[in-house]
Fold each of these.
Amino acid sequence: MSDAHGDHAHGNDEHGDHAHEPNGEHADGHADPHAPIVHDDAQDAWERRSAAIEALLVEKGILTHDEVRAAIDDFASRTPMLGARLVAKAWTDPAFKSRLLADAKAAAAEELGLDMGLPEIVALENSDSVHHLIVCTLCSCYPRMLLGPPPGWYKSLPYRSRAIVDPRGVMRELGLDVPPDVEVRVVDSTADMRYFVIPARPSGTESLSEAQLAALVTRDSMIGVARAREPIASTWHDSGCVRVA
Amino acid sequence: MARFGPGNRVRVRTEHRPTHVRTPAFIMGHTGVVDRLHGSFPNPEQIAYGQDGLPRTPLYFVRFDAPRVWNGAPETDTLLIDLYEHWLEPADREGATA
């Protein structure tokens, strides 16, 4: 859903993700199943540079290819579901929420049993009176250890430059109208902290389990460009597939 | 030791250096209020050049009123930006004029 808002920003640090274009992918993002598979063996300058650096580090005995692969596997295994689990627990357990707000890195490591890596993590809570929106205007800092890789639009120059100046306009374009009496706090993660949002708990979810609540917490709601899903929307989504079939 | 604490008013230095800096140009010269001290970190502006970045530098979460930074921004709205201590100077004396 979220990747519909322009996930093709190749400008900044989106290096080496160009392989889909020769495969006959249409501009609207739907691959043509009959297009011939084209192998683009030519590496771009960034790929050649990173391959050369990796080869040098291995040659000097600083790291091994297996360590690089393990690190990439770990990166790739992180998804927004990790953050969603923390949010759902915070919604149901006030003591955990206090720990999450006080020291998100420690609370996340304890709850998820995962190494959270080097950057610090800060959880910011949305409410009826405050709405946080996360951006990194200088580059593309993002809580990858909790949300996985950032969406392309998060790294794009238009988002990074506009979210800080006109957060309400950007959120409106993404489908979120924040009421005028709510304080919008744009958070610019320029340094060692990685931020994620605890969205407000939707009403009518009192009877849901923690796992059911976690399913309402989307990646975009933890960046701050969306609210958590309403439970009705998730029911419709589930039955939608049945109807199509 | 951290020079500022929550509630202190601080002004962001204006300094355009053609090097790696972690302070966005748009906030230079503006006055905000320290929301919290995040801790102290090796200075990334030195790490970028192969140095160790030590001693560690205090990092603050600083809040700015959006309409003081951007003309026409809603009075309700704020910006929260991570800023290292060497980019900040005290602004308490000017108080309400900032």
Amino acid sequence: MKETPEFKRLGKIDRGKSLQIKVDGEAIPAFAGETVATAMLSAGLVRCQTHADRPLGVFCNIGQCCSCLMTINGVSGVRACQTQVSPGLEIQTRNVQKRGPR
Amino acid sequence: MSSLQRVDCDALVVGGGITGCFIALRLAQKGLKVCLADKGPLFREASGRSGGGVRQQFRNKAELPLAMEAVRLWQGLTEELGDIEYHQGGSLRLHRTEQLHAEDKIRVERERGQGLEVQLLTAQQVRARVPVLAEGIKLMGGTFCPSDGNANPLLLGRVLTHALIRAGVVIHSTEEIKTFETVGGRLTGAVGSTHLYRCPKAVNAAGPWARKIMQTIGFDFPVTFRKSQILVTEPLSPIIQEFISFDKGYLRQAKDGNLHLGVRGIPIAALETRQTMSSFQDVGSDFPEVFPFLSNVQIIRAFAGITTWTGDGIPILDTAPGIQGLWIASGFSGHGFCLGPIVGQLFSEWMTAGHPSMDVSAFAWSRFGDGEKKAQHAAGAT
Amino acid sequence: MTTLRIQAVVVGMGPAGMAAAIELGRAGVRTALIDQAPLPGGQVYRHPPKEFRNPHAIAPSRHRTGDLLRQELAQSATSLTILNDAVVWGGFAPGALSVHQAGRILEVAYEKLVICEGAQERIIPCPGWTLPGVLSLGGLQKMITSQGIAPGGRVLLAGSGPLLVGTAAVVARAGADLAGVYEAVPFTRFMSLGIGVMAWPQLLPESFSYMSELVSKRVKFRFAWGLRSLSGDDRVREATLVALDNAGAPIPGSERNVPVDVVGIGFGLQPHVRLARLVGCRTEYDFSRRYFAPVTDNWCRSSQPGVYVAGDGAGVGGADWSEAQGRIAGLHAAWSLNRRDCDQLSGFSSEWVRLRRRLQFYVSALHRVFTPKDGHYSAITPDTVVCRCEGVRAAELMARMNMGEQDLTALKPTRLAMGPCQGRGCEGIATELLRVQGTPPENLKALHLRPPIVPMPLSAFAQPTEPVPGTPT
């Protein structure tokens, strides 16, 4: 998973308060004001969901394409690019299988 | 009138929902030249907005034999027509009151007597089937029919359209049939918005609009209309196998994982399919109480459709009294989807050989009383 | 649940929405502003998070314009009710909208509605475009300028239009390893835009700063090149580029493979037409610009009485254009509500109308240069995914089109537009496929939209709501 080159947080920015969120049980760093998508990309995590064997991740970053849907604090289908991080936020990648071949 | 284009055919089917499409298909397969007219594209109304339930249990006693025969036909449709996601996952009715459980116990005995495999379940058995049911709710039991199921209405509409074309049916969509024409008590044709039909036989399967057409030739049948709404969730991994109905509505899971959440129809006077805020509220407040996992899902789509209800909840499947050559198939009261294939077969027999192969006397027009008077009136009309 | 009764509603707080709200506020009209973001700005003037202590360290010069508008908005705020983190999800009767904000539903009853939904990116997909690590150009740019993170690995950008140059400059300035920038349009056509820019010289400093950024960092910039395909397993790992002929079609044999970690793609912008369709505004396919847009007049009035559509959401013209549109729409709505003679409005608003006319020259040039040609759509091979949400591939759609399913509604059984994004991603692409297949123009119709127009958590409906009198219950 870590072989994905992480996005780098640009040094000249004085970010909000540092905190931690959990993605699939693994804690990653984040800063207040960032979106879940930002924190994930900065940790080298590019996949948000798998829908019928297709991996999908952040694409439009403005809440329109629904590629970054994840389960956040138990709620399904939440857009990572529109969700602000908060301390202890629990995020799971979604895996949607279909009932049978189409 | 003279600007209408004249069309000659052996039979005109009015209404391109599941009923009309199957009737037209089976008639064409018997060698008739068939025209199918709908005021819009095929399957655009109730049939295309249906919950897709193919259900035998919990029907009027007279309907059950038709529904059971329909299911036998449904089982052959995938091979005949193509992929329609027909899935026999069973249907489950939940009992949240003792009264309902008691009523259904009697109903189940009656249905078993009619040859349907259906079981009365205890509350534990229901919970074993549907683990996602809320633990805290009062549950008295349920009924389960394993051979019930559902299909995808959009796919069915598509494969039926292709089958109709292959069978040589002439399809007129955006054709509004205004009235039928008769001479001396025999059907001679119909007047549409673009075409003038000359045909000795026709069937009115125009759903909510069927009554309006019949009124133009002096007939009437008492029906009311309801608007049923469905909310569709995001795709979820398989969580429900059965078509589940309970006091607040029903739900089923489509092949692609979306759950369809349907609420009971609300009475309407005008024929419109505007969604209401209350349908969202009803699902939002009633469904998660029974299925708690629904609190955490997204609704991505919703729509409404109109159903046509008779006083006794079963359709009118009959000839128009006093008019030779005109049939009617309407008033399916919210559960006509399952019956489509069998109604198609029966009417194709009726309209060619003169009688259907099953007993449809319970569905006669005359049970509404006015039949005779209207027949006399019609016989006198030109 | 509350019902907010207001004179005017402005949906969207980008340049058009802010401008409309400023004019309405100045005229004393009780106005509600609705936007999904925490702060006003829309996309082009997106404000970095308020938690970031020095946001302008990353923000481009454009932000100054955004800040000025925000300040002006704050000054007219006395008659404005601002609803942030709010989305319009449905409307059940004329003059009423249903809004979702922080888990509650709010009904808003209005006399005038100004819709400023802005734009979305136009994407021409290629095989592999749905792999994680592939972002839209704007999406990648926003990661850098409003979240302050830049790709750590190799970045490749491909597509067309000002957003390609702008994103390239931002990526380069952030110090990322930019492997190359591939513009689909040929060099000569690209340079002809220079004439258009002369009509709006305010753009020159920005254009120069982008160009100098790219030149100073020696960024590889190629014209008349595009993406053939992207490949990878769980994420994108390689891009295959191809030279394009004058019609925009790939030239076989010219393919080149480049290892990549992040890819940005995009072919400009198209109007984001969702609320406008929900409330019944007539929307038509624009053949020269290749997108759906609501039909509007010079005052931004739509076909629906009382409803205006302004900004990129009515037709793409950029930030300054959108602001002019917003001013004009806001003024007309304010004058109508205050019972002023709108025939006199031309004189009053002439500054904005003149500005819009001047910008028109540049906007037309932009579209002439960058609107994709049929050849560009041949990048969509049969195995290319068209509907990201449901995985519907081009081959299935083309087969269905050949079988007579020749409009978007007829194609729905393929699952097209049936996913959570509700067609935002695939409607445009599928329409172009219909068009290049030779579908009759009357079949190029936008899908009919019904509530919900954004995915809604079922939990939001759990509380009882108080309907607006007159809406169907």
